[in-house]
Write a structure and sequence with these properties.
- By secondary structure, the chain is an alpha+beta fold.
- Helices cover 29% and strands 45% of the residues.
- The protein has two helices and six strands, in the order H-H-E-E-E-E-E-E.
- Strands 1-2-3-4-5-6 form a six-stranded antiparallel β-sheet, with no helix packed on it.
- Strand 2 and strand 3 form a beta hairpin.
- Helix 1 packs antiparallel against helix 2.
- It is elongated and about 65 Å long.
- The two termini are 40 Å apart.
Length: 107
Amino acid sequence: MIKFIIEIKNFFINYQFHESINIIIIIFLILNKMSKSSEQKEIKEGDYKNDKSEGKKILYYENGNKKYEGDYKNGHQEGKGILYDKDGNKIYEGDFKNNKSEGNGID
C-alpha cells in the first residue's frame, strides 16, 4: 500500500499539481479505511441487562454471516447455542458456558 501511495505522490509531483498532498492524504485515508473494513467485526443483535448481553442473541461477522446464535447470560455465551465459521457453516451446536463450548455438542 505504501508503494502505491509513493507512486501516486511521484505522479502528482511530476505534473506539479499544487493540491497533490491533499489528494495523497485522501487516497491514503480511503485505502486505510478499506483495509480496516476487511477485519473481523462483530455485529450483535439481542437484549441487554445492566449493559451486558442477556437472553437470546445473534452475533454476525462483518460479511453478514452468523457467528453465534444462542443464549447469553450476564454478558457471556451461556446455555444452548450454535457456532458458525466465517462462511456460515455450522461448526458446533450444543452447550456453552462462560463463552466456551462445553461437552461434545453436535458437529
